[in-house]
Amino acid sequence: xxxxxxxxxxxxxxxxxxxxxxxxxxxxxxxxxxxxxxxxxxxxxxxxxxxxxxxxxxxxxxxxxxxxxxxxxxxxxxxxxxxxxxxxxxxxxxxxxxxxxxxxxxxxxxxxxxxxxxxxxxxxxxxxxxxxxxxxxxxxxxxxxxxxxxxxxxxxxxxxxxxxxxxxxxxxxxxxxxxxxxxxxxxxxxxxxxxxxxxxxxxxxxxxxxxxxxxxxxxxxxxxxxxxxxxxxxxxxxxxxxxxxxxxxxxxxxxxxxx
Length: 259
Ligand SMILES: Nc1ncnc2c1ncn2[C@@H]1O[C@H](COP(=O)(O)OP(=O)(O)O)[C@@H](O)[C@H]1O
Ligand SMILES: CC(=O)N[C@@H](CCC(=O)OP(=O)(O)O)C(=O)O
Fold this sequence. Notes:
Blueprint: E1 8-13, H1 15-19, H2 21-36, E2 40-45, H3 48-57, E3 64-65, E4 68-69, H4 76-97, E5 102-106, E6 113-117, E7 125-130, H5 133-140, E8 144-148, E9 150-152, E10 158-160, H6 163-174, E11 178-182, E12 189-190, E13 193-194, E14 197-198, H7 200-208, H8 216-228, E15 233-237, H9 244-249, E16 255-257
Bound molecules: adenosine-5'-diphosphate (ADP) and ligand 2.
The site of ligand 2 has 15 residues, from helix 3 and strand 4.
């Protein structure tokens, strides 16, 4: 990034990527450097695997369809405890340790994200409105927002939004220059190889053929919507070591989605 350019990036970090403490620390150090050069951004995090682990301890067997948790009302407090609580606060602490003035939020703060349930039987939702003004206010004051995807509907009832979809909504609302999905895989895999780029047509075909499955489906669908919304650069990949953030932003690693 040139020193006179201001870039706004949205990074979505998946739950399993957060658990790799050494990589997380290196990523936050590089993010801190990006901010010192004048870059802005928001970190949206997941944590679905940890939610499932705690749910099972409490006797609730998680149910997923096409990578989305089919959320029952009794799972909302667990989601809020794990995502808006433990995951969010541990990321905020790790970011401060890397020199980032982080502020932890959930989608319901502001509210940044308001959703609606996919059907009357579930508390899994889709985003219906995004207000980025709280995020912009914090960024303008030098803070770095770290956002969990838990939120609410228009009557204040808790709602579970997939973190990939929350990241898409934020990237769209902020008109971000780039949307980066950091996961536990180096990109979209086909036959064991990372695909360096993918068009919307190729992505839909890969979903239809079962090459893209489970948690990769919401990531790819959110990427395709971000492409349609004019987000400049969309990449799915992994952070393993110093320089990966720059390489992901330059499309030199991971899978870049393009038209
Ligand atoms: N074609 C594919 N390429 C890479 N990963 C895939 C693919 N299809 C399914 N996956 C699965 O998607 C997972 C990433 O999604 P998810 O578990 O939701 O991660 P995150 O927590 O980062 O959002 C990978 O670990 C992998 O198991
Ligand atoms: C509706 C839905 O699926 N919500 C997700 C929210 C967390 C998430 O997306 O976590 P990862 O990014 O780590 O997968 C869930 O309940 O698991």
